[in-house]
Amino acid sequence: MPLLLLLAAPTRAQKPDTTLIRYGGQLAGQYSAGGVNRTLFSTSHSATFLRGLHFGAPVTGSFTFGKQERRLREREWLFNATPYYWKGRFRFYGIGGYERSNLRGINNRFQLGAGPGWAFYSDSLGREVALSNLLIREATYFQGGTERVVSRSSTRLKVVYSYRVFTLNATTLYQPNLAYFADYRATQLTTLALRFSARFALSATYAYTFESRVLEGKPTDNTNVTLGVAFSTK
Q1: Where are any strands of DSSP class E within the chain?
Q2: Residues 6+ apart with CB under 8 A from 217
C-alpha cells in the first residue's frame, strides 16, 4: 500500500542551494474480539531529502504484522523511493518500489517507473490537491514459484488539508495492466491526525487494497483501520 509523511512541513519552506532532511514516523495497532479475534500492528517511516527549490527524494517504508484466531495472516513489507522535480504546479516523478505480502502470497514484487504530475492547488501550509500518472514496469514473484511481469499505468490523486490542529492526508491509486484493463489494483490510504505539538500527533488510518488477480485461495482485498501515534521533524 502506498505510504505518507503525516506531518510534513511545506516544500515551499525550502531555500535555494540548501539541503534539508525531514523525517516522519507512525506506530499503529488494532485489537478486536468476538466473531473474529484479531490483532494488528503496523509501523511506517518516511525520510524526505530536499535540495534547492526544485528537487526532492522521499524514501518510505512500512511493516504490518497481523494475526487472526492466533494464526499469522498478515506480514507485509513495503519500500518506496519517489524522487521528483517540481516547478510551479508541474511535477515529474520517478519511482522504485519493493513489496512482500504474506496475505496476498507475494514473495517479492519490484516496480520501476516515471511520469508527470500537476498540482491543482498548493500553499505555504503544505495543503495540496495533486494528480499524477506514471508508467511502471512491475515484476511479481508469487509463493509457489509463479511469476508475472506487466506494465501498468499508475494514476494517483493526493489530497492534503490542514486546519488548526487537524491534518488530513488521503492518497488514491488506480493501477490497471496496460495490456488488459480488467486486471487492475486500487488502493486508498487516508489518515487523520490530531496534533498535540509541532512533532507529535494522534492518528487514525484507513487503508484499503484491492487486487483483481491474486493466487487461488488468497483474498482480493484487505481493509485495515488503525489508531496510533505519529512523530515528525520540522
Answers
A1: 19-32, 38-51, 55-68, 71-81, 84-87, 90-101, 106-122, 128-142, 147-163, 166-177, 180-195, 200-211, 221-232
A2: none
The answer to whether the Cα torsion of 147, 148, 149, 155 is positive or negative is negative
More confident: 229 or 125: 229
Residue 88 reports pLDDT greater than 70: yes
Output the nine-digit C-alpha cell for 168.
Answer: 488530513
| pTM for this prediction | 0.85
Average pLDDT over residues 19-24: 89
Q: What are phi and psi of 103, to 5 degrees?
A: -60, -40
Neighbouring CB atoms inside 10 A of 18's CB total 10
Question: CA-to-CA distance for 219 and 18, rounded, in angstroms?
Answer: 47
124-142 pLDDT, tens digit per residue, is 788 999 999 999 999 999 9
| 3-state class (DSSP) for residue 102 | coil
3-class secondary structure, 13: helix
Contact by Cβ (8 Å): 38, 66: yes
